[in-house]
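A brief tutorial aside. Many learners find it easier to grasp structure tokens once they have seen a single protein encoded end to end. The record that follows does exactly this for Muconolactone Delta-isomerase. Read the sequence first, then the structure, and try to relate runs of similar tokens to stretches of the chain.
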Amino acid sequence: MSELYAVRMDVALPPDMDPAAKAELLAREKAYSQQWQRSGHWRSIWRCVGEYANLSIFEVEGNAQLHDILWGLPLFPHMRMTITPLAQHPSDIAAG
């Protein structure tokens, strides 16, 4: 059974990071995240306006799979994350 999680990712890259290294890191991050989006496990990603942050929805088999996906992010060492497990709301008309 799959589980849903909302994950807020705040990114803080070193201000003095080499531009070539930064470009390479961001390219790897994009490719990695899009791989998981295509698989269906990373259901959506939303930019937090005015911040270097995103809010993403994951559908995974549980904590261990989510942990593995997040730890695999190339930007992981530069992120702070807030993870919220989600459950169906009884007032959601789409659930009926």
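Self-check: The chain has a mean pLDDT of 97. If you spotted this yourself, you are ready for the next section.
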